[in-house]
Each structure stands twice: as C-alpha cells, then as structure tokens.
Amino acid sequence: MDFDDVDQLPEDQLGFSRLVEADHSQDVVMTDVASDQEESYAVLSVEHPHGNGFNDSGETSQRSQTQTRAHPQLQSGRKFIIGVDFGTTTSTIAFVRIDPGEQEDLISRQRIQCVDHYPDMPLGCQASAFEHNTVVPTELWYRTKPALAQRTHAAGNIFDSHLDEGYDSPLDDGGHMSEASASDHDSEALPALSTKTPPRQIPSWGYAVHQKIALPDEQGLEPIHMTRFKLLLDEKTDTPEFLKLRQRTLETLNALKAARATQGGRCETIDIIADYLEPLFKHARWCLINFHDLQDTDSIQFVLCVPAMWTEKACRIMQDAMMRAIQASQLGQLENGGIKDLFIVAEPEAAAAYALSDPRYKSRLYPGETVLVLDCGGGTVDAITYQLLETDPLRVREISKPKGLSCGASFLNEEFRNFLEDRLEEASIQTNTPLSKILDSTVIGWENGQKRKIDVTKKEQKIDSIHIPGLKRDDSRGFSSDSLPVHYLEMKGVFKGCLRKVAEFLRLQLQDAKEAHHGNGEARGFAVQKVILIGGFGDSPSLHHHLENVIATERNLLGQPIEFINPRHIDSAVARGAVLRALNKENGPERKSRTSYGIICSDPFDKDNPRHRGLRGTRNPVDGELYIMNTIHWKIQEVGIVLRSPASHGPLTITSRVT
Questions:
Q1: Which of 122, 299, 319, 500 has its CA 20 to 30 A from that of 75?
Q2: What angle do helix axes 488-515 and 541-552 make, rounded to 10 degrees?
Q3: Tell me: the pLDDT tens digits for 217-262?
Q4: Is the domain of 196 the same as that of 239?
Q5: CA 153, chain centre distance (Å)
C-alpha cells in the first residue's frame, strides 16, 4: 500500500478501531528523511518492537511539530552527528563533524571517529592503548554512605565527591567552562581546552570501577557495583541463563534502592542508565571540545542504537534516560520535551551498514547476493539478512526481520565466574578481601586479558594460571600459592555453552534465509553467499574460529560454500554504522513492516455500518452530525508488508502522539 491519497482508499481496505480520547497537545513530527511538503499523517504504532514513534526500520528522527528541516544533504552551519551504542558490557560513542556546505551522503566512512581518552585506564595498559581505546565498560560503582555521597540532580545520582589531588578541571560540575577558565574566551563559543587530561569530577564509572574493585574497600563504606543493567530493559527473553543473570542484576538494583531510600532518592532502571550516560556524555563533550573543536554554535544530532528485540517500553525508557544525560552534560539540545533530531536505528542494521561499506569487501559484493550480518555483543547476538540491490551506492533489501538471542560475552563471563566458584569452593584463602570481590576482580582481569587471546578450538592452546591472591597451596586440589592452574578442557568447558548457542543461532538464520519468501510471494528462498561477523564478542579468537569451522560445513540454498568475513573496527562497528546510516537516510534498506499505520480521525456515525453497532455517536457542534470519535483508518495493517526507502516513493512526514 502507498501512503498517498488517503481519502480514496477503498472502504474494504480500511480497518476500524475504537480509541481513548486523544490529546494532541504533545504531538511531534517523526521524519525519516527531510520533507519539503507540509503533508502530515496521524499514526498509531501498535505492538512495535522498536519503540514509540518508530518507522519500520527501527529508526526515527524526532523534531518539533511546528518545525521543518532543511534539505538533509546540505548544511548551512557546522554539525556533529553522534552515534551512541549503549552496550551490556561496554559502550561506544562514534561521531563525525560536518562543515558548512558539505553534502552528508558524500562523506566517507573514514571520516567517522570514536570518542577515546577514557579516564582511569586499566593498570598495566600502555598510554598509546589508552588514547585510542574506543570502548568503555558499562559499569557503575556507588558509594552508599550518605556522609560521603552527594546527589547532583533530580534523579538522585550518587557521585564520588573528591577530585584527584593536584588536578584543576577547566569544567565545572555541570560540564561547562568555569568562570575563571572562560574569562579569556568568547562567551559565544567553547574553545579548545588548555589541558590534555580528561575531566575527573565524574561518577565512578567505566574503568574507574575496575580500579575500585582491585583496591580494598574504604572503611565505613558500603559500595554497590552495578553491571549489565542493560539487561533490565529486556523483558522478552526467558531462557534460564538470561533470567539468572537478570535476577542477579535486579538484586543489586534492589540493594541500591534500599540505600537510596534512606537518602530520599529514587532508583529505577531509568535512573541507573541516566547515571551512566551522564558521565559518558560529559567525557564525550570534553573530548569533542579538546580534540575536535566542538563549539556552542554547533548543532548536534544523536543516533541511538537499540537491540532488534527491544519493546516499545524499553526504547522509551532509553530515550528518557538520554534526555536526562543530555540535559546534565550539555551535549546536544532538548526541544519541546524531546531530544532534538533523534534518529534511532536497530543495532544489527547499523552494524550491517558499516560492515557492508568496508572498502576491503565492497568490491567483492555483487547485486543479487544475500549477506547475513552477525553482531555478537556483550548481551545479545543479533542477526539480520540482506539481499544486495545495488553496490554503488549501496542499497539492500531486508529479507527477514532482525532477530536476537541473549548469549553474548557477559554470559561467557558468568560461566567463567561459575567455574571459579566451583573450583574455589571450601578453598583456603588467606585474605581479608571477600571472595565475591576477589571473583569480581579476577573476572575483570580475565575479560581484559586472557579471554581475548584464548582459542579453545586449538588443543595445543596454552592456558595461563589464574592469579588468586591469598590462595593457599593444596597439592590434592592442584592449587599453587596465589595461583589456580587451569587445564585446557576446563577452559573449553567455560566457552562451550556460549559457542554452541551462537552457532545454533547462526544455523537458524541460514535456514530462515532458505525458507524466506520473495517479494512476489514465491517461497524459493535465498542463498546466503557471505556471513559477516562483527561486535566486541566477535573479536574473540575462540568464537571467530568456531564459527569459521561451522560455516565451512554449511552450504547455502544453491549448494555453494559460504564466505566468512571479519571487517575492521569490529568492536565499534555498531556506533560507527549508526553515524553512517544518519549520513545517508535516503539509501536505507527496504524493510518488512513490523507495525501498523493509520489515520486518527472522526468517523461519521452510520447505524447500518456493522462496525458502529454498540457505539454511541458524539454530535459535532459545527455541523450537527453524529461522529464516532478517535477512530483509525488503517493504511498499513498487515505485518510483513515491504516498505521501500523514502527515496522510492517521496518524502514522508508522520505525526504521532507521544505518550
């Protein structure tokens, strides 16, 4: 169906639905591309997996109802596009600067960069690695003793109250230039800062959490370590492993709720996410000011990456948490109660956009080929399958909706922790440090070190012993002093569950492609020629080689072998791809509809219409006629209808009520 000529749709194609009284005082305009038309439609999003106001790409661009946007390709002022990949274990921020007069869709992917110079680098890391590290742990460390904590905003955020000795930050608590620092500068712009040291007056977040875990607890404090809190937004996954991990996170959240209750603060999922995003955005702002000349006059567009399987509620919570962080960090602008120019894209689609644009592989892509992109992250493994329509510019068609499974790297970390607990049960450990903290520190060390090097697909793989401070030697159990030897088969057992689940998920996606329907209704399926592996977990040698071995045994629909590809920047591909998608919205993929669209209107009451039976009409004071108020005339009601890029059928502006 097309969105044009609404009034001329045949009556038998119009659905009917009764709604509650509509309040249009908070209507906003959702646009996928720029529109010079003033045409707008009222839309109700029903059971959409990606959130309020999404289009069928899992993306949206949010603006004021009364505003119109300039042509998206030509910028009259300088602009930054910032992609946010809020991950389960690590997070990434990518960006690109667009100078006046530049055409956005001609900007190359090489221009896209990532925020780096994260504070509190891990002990033992070289400075060069710190400067170019593009990911930061998604972790928080709360100091819950009231006398040593302070609330800094309405959400009840608890920050560490001290600064490192001798450090004089040029930014104040709100992330602005202090009066002393700004006195020599133009008040209309934020100049590059004079120091190359990242600001430190921030919550205990990211790598600072790892340092605190490695150190003894401060006397009198009751620290609470929050991690994997992104899982709290996933209310659909019900596997035993996921539910166990989510329950542990909920228990930690409840402990924090109890601590905050004594201080009059609140603590819900949205508060935890906002607590993390605020210092992340403050650091991003500092980095952009310091190294990329961000100024007050520059406009900022955010791109938010969300998992394919998130519900509307999850996406709404994430957007609200971002609003708090933007307001507190002063990175970007809020407008009419929303994030100005917010563009939302599904994580697997962003990853696919970046992977398929890699010049190393783009020359090997051909129109008509089918490509499966496997995004292996910290919490979920997402997959999306595309058929290539064109290669220059790249145009693709989604042949099945994105899917995800909770079997990412954090579940592997949990398996390693379970292994340690089993091996160290009733072990003699001479230390005042609680075993739980020893395990936390050991898992972090393994995550940042040996885990990234181990390849359990090779039997000759040497497994290093695990350092356990205070462990007493016990020859009967194979313990050395302060050291836990690990056999190859034991480490293989740690990896086995996650590797098997990812492989099974991949096989299911390949089978789905074989059974997918073509646009003409034929069911002959698609032959996947290439599988592209991305995501931080995809950088694991064990996972990489295991999937390589699995794919070597698979054949596509035509009986052909399948090529396995590992692109560059594997851990930041989602954030970089999100920016790339925002640069070129018109050439987005064709997608299968995952929601229904319709026009909210008042229907003239017709007693002979079976749909009106049992309903009471309301008399209109203008014409005196009876109407059934707040009904929907559906334009797209069937899930699975293929929606082409707006470039195929003209611009579209959608008006949607935000609740």
A1: 319
A2: 50
A3: 665 567 888 999 999 998 888 788 888 888 989 999 998 888 776 5
A4: yes
A5: 24
